[in-house]
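PROTOCOL LOG
Step 1. Enter all chains and additional molecules of the complex.
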Amino acid sequence: MKGLIYKSTGSWYQVRDDKGYFYKARLRGKFKQQELKVTNPIAVGDWVDFSIESETDSIAIIETIYPRENYIIRKSAHKTAHGHLIASNLDQSALVVTLHTPRTSIGFIDRFLVSCEAFRIPAILIFNKIDLYTSEDQYIYQTLYDIYSSIGYTVLTTSTVTEEGLDTLSTFLQDKTTLLSGHSGVGKSSLLNNLLPEIMLRTSEISDYSNKGKHTTTFAEMFDYNPTSRIIDTPGIKELGVFDIGSDELSHYFPEMRKKLGGCKFHNCRHINEPGCSIKQAVEKGSIALSRYESYISIYQEEDTHR
Ligand SMILES: Nc1nc2c(ncn2[C@@H]2O[C@H](COP(=O)(O)OP(=O)(O)OP(=O)(O)O)[C@@H](O)[C@H]2O)c(=O)[nH]1
Ligand SMILES: [Mg+2]
Ligand SMILES: [Zn+2]
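Step 2. Run joint prediction.
Step 3. Record the structure below.
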């Protein structure tokens, strides 16, 4: 039987068959992994073939996995040169961002967007907790809005307290499978609880001590928003760690740089200190944001040292 993975805990999986029945599944002992070096062979969003072990207890065994259309992966915290799959077969990936309690850094936003570009997954940014914005935050938000929307990214604002922006968000979720990602405590599960009140996911307050989230969600889980739309809640991540992207191809994953690459004097320009660099000229003119260029340099150096 063919099924779709809705939840993955690492030791067992929740798989849904084509009639909508859920089974608790584990992997066949000699399950054949895909080529990708990962710490988790099966992720939420994977299509699999499974066999039923016990119909009465809804227990199943996952036999094989179908090729993935795409996936989001981060560097494994435990095993070097390995990735940890966050989810697969996505139509879009939404990064939930906050300006404080907790604060999302621009570097983190850009790393996330680079990963999405590399895996060809459309990305949107959701600025949550707008009920908390001071006038200074409003100003920062406007600056970020201008930067990211001019590159072509959809930028939304939401509040789960005032419910502002949730209707608009809902239209962006229509007929798609959407990943919700972001730091712990930004409100991913809260957003899902607002969109789907019956699921009642656990959420928790930001720590007073560290002003950070408490890693309340521990496993990725997919939910049916409506018959044609699905949303994936994920555990908060500290760092994405751009995975397996060569520094020479990095500028292709900055859409505003991609358009200008032909203009550099040297065809193998790294856009760091070469003369006649169209990217650096655009940064000086202000048509490429300095913060984006700084993220480029930072990821470039990180990727370059890992080779
Ligand atoms: N003021 C305000 N608080 C919010 C908003 N959205 C979420 N929160 C609060 O932020 C805290 C963290 O929310 P969660 O939904 O648990 O965050 P999460 O992103 O799921 O966190 P992890 O599961 O740890 O990754 C909770 O106390 C929520 O009530 C919002 O729009 N405004
Ligand atoms: Mg959560
Ligand atoms: Zn250049």
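Step 4. Note key features.
The first strand starts at residue 2 and ends at 8.
The chain has three domains: 2-65, 71-233, 250-305.
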